[in-house]
Amino acid sequence: MSHKTFISYKYSEAQKLRDDIIKALGDDAQYYKGETSDSPDLTDTTTENIKRHLKDMMWGTSVTIVIISPNIKKSKWIDWEIEYSLKEIMRSDKTSRSNGIVGVIMKYNGGYSWLRTKTIKKDGHFLINIDKCKLYSIIINNRSNQNPKQYFCEECKTIDVLTGSYIALVDEEEFLSDPQKYINNAFDKSQNISGYIIEKTR
What we know:
The protein has about 200 residues and is α/β, with parallel strands linked by helices. The chain has a single domain, classed as 3-Layer(aba) Sandwich (Rossmann fold). The chain has helices spanning about 10-25, 45-60, 80-85, 135-140, 170-175, 180-190; strands at about 5-10, 65-70, 90, 95, 100-105, 115-120, 125-130, 150-155, 160, 165-170. The strands form 4 sheets. Strands 1-2-5-10 form a 4-stranded parallel sheet. A two-stranded antiparallel ribbon has the order 3-4. The longest helix is centred in the N-terminal third of the chain and has 14 residues, at about 10-25. It is globular and about 55 Å long.
């Protein structure tokens, strides 16, 4: 099943990955509701006008893809877009429910160590360490927030990388190889949002 999507990204460093994601969506790109190269230039317009334009694009979508790039926190809009995506917004007699959200980690300098490192536990399971300084608090607070937690391994208390967090983080290459897998996972969690402790404010 296809879902209406919005991509939140820092234009100056993640435009190519945004384009790669749209291309990887294939026929499902018709359900993409965010910016494209044909979108109007809002550089010199007011903040309220930009917000209104973004709201019109995001309203009615069900999944937000957030590109996690090295300078994401320098964006004026991404944390606001995540916050808006998590709200339930009513227009006339229709309500846009909280979106599922998936973070796509951009490959930088040949890898992903700029954001996360992996170590192997004694039982063979991976422990992933994220550099939280490089992420907005609204992303950090919606990770490892499954309630009740369902451990991938009860012995070492390892959570599943996709279902253990409302905002899962996926490497660029993995996401591009099967975008529908991760979009569907994000959507499924939005349909079971009561199974997570959600932080909806920045």
